[in-house]
Design goal:
The complex is a heterodimer of chains A (157) and B (177). In chain A, 65% of the residues lie in helices and 0% in strands. Chain A has 157 residues and is an all-alpha fold. With 177 residues, chain B is α/β, with parallel strands linked by helices. The longest helix of chain B is centred in the N-terminal third of the chain and has 20 residues. Chain B is elongated, with a radius of gyration of 22 Å. The chains are: A mainly alpha (157), B alpha/beta (177). Chains A and B meet through helix 3, helix 4 and helix 5 of A and helix 1 and helix 4 of B.
Chain lengths: 157, 177
């Protein structure tokens, strides 16, 4: 089984890399205004409900924000400007996806570190280890055996 | 010299950032939302009032003022806070203005609230579309903005004001006895 670990790990890494590349390189089609509005609303937090986006919520505040998104799009503002419009009023809190680049890179860094760690572990693990020089444990003495029997009897009692 | 086993390098790399994120993230109160409006000019709040007139916050410039987002259904917070607002408005009459902004409320319910708990006589903008609430970044009533004579937001209170917090905010506006 040990001989399979490296090819399997390599195949898994390749598949992961291919997925990431597909996701990054996939062309984004031009969106209609309604779709764009929906996309912006989906990443804004509904101010007067818990754990819902503006796109999903039916509250008055979410409705007012959706309406404003439509108006701002009609004025020719782009998605970033519209998000900033609401950040200026509610703060970063309103964003459901963080705007700090750091927040996006951290998981990538962690995954890369894990990959490096896994590879190193696999490679180091394949190096033959020096044979153990001492027996792992001495056989129990007669006194030990007697004590074990006594303890088991006490447990059963 | 022997290098330490790899796990003593990889584990900290993985765990230290995670621990730091949890430590800083969980230490924050999710209800404390710092307002980006503090230090900036108050957006112009204009529209129809509860008494049917049209009103704009620009008419308040020149004296410090309080903008209070409230609702008749906001019980008990808005009920508790109401006498504090009434007291400040009467105590600093002429030196402090108050503007109410209704948050997702009907005019009838708001009027009933004022009949029941007392009407301080200051205007209340209706905000039926919810647009003013968005301009102010209001997430839920009561929220109160303290604005200086130049129209700059000095502070924002989320949740009901008490006599003590009101006195502190008013001191920030230069109002104290």
């Amino acid at each position: 089984m040990k001989g399979l670990a490296l090819p399997v790990a390599a195949a898994a890494l390749l598949a992961l890399g291919a997925l990431v590349a597909l996701e990054v390189l996939r062309p984004t089609p031009a969106l209609r205004p309604a779709e764009q509005a929906q996309q912006i609303a989906a990443l804004l937090r509904c101010p007067d409900c818990q754990a819902l986006s503006v796109a999903e919520s039916h509250t008055a505040a979410a409705g007012a924000i959706r309406e404003q998104i439509g108006e701002l799009l009609a004025q020719g503002r782009n998605a970033d400007e519209i998000r900033q419009h609401f950040v200026d009023r509610y703060g970063e809190w309103i964003l459901l996806a963080p705007s700090a680049a750091f927040a996006w890179w951290l998981p990538v860094v962690v995954v890369l570190a894990a990959v490096v760690g896994l590879l190193a572990w696999l490679l180091v693990g394949r190096r033959p280890r020096p044979a153990a020089t001492e027996p792992s444990a001495a056989p129990p003495t007669t006194a030990d055996r007697q004590r074990i029997r006594d303890e088991i009897e006490r447990l059963d009692a | 010299m022997r290098l330490p086993p790899l796990r003593w390098v990889v584990l900290p790399i993985l765990l230290v950032p995670l621990a730091w994120l949890l430590f800083t993230g969980l230490g924050r109160d999710p209800r404390q939302i710092p307002s980006p409006l503090v230090g900036k000019p108050l957006p112009v709040l204009a529209g129809a009032t509860l008494t049917g007139e049209s009103f704009s916050s620009t008419s308040l410039l020149g004296t410090p003022f309080i903008v209070n987002a409230w609702a008749s259904w906001c019980i008990p917070a808005c009920v508790d806070e109401h006498p504090v607002l009434m007291d400040a408005a009467s105590r600093y009459a002429g030196r402090l203005a108050v503007l109410g902004v209704l948050f997702q409320d009907t005019p009838d319910d708001a009027r009933r609230f004022l009949v029941r708990y007392g009407d301080g006589g200051w205007p209340h903008l209706l905000d039926s579309s919810g647009r003013l609430a968005v301009e102010l970044g209001v997430t839920g009533p009561p929220e109160t903005f303290f604005v200086d004579a130049d129209g700059i937001v000095i502070a924002k209170q989320i949740g009901p004001l008490t006599v003590e917090t009101m006195a502190e905010y008013l001191a920030d506006l230069g109002l104290s006895e």
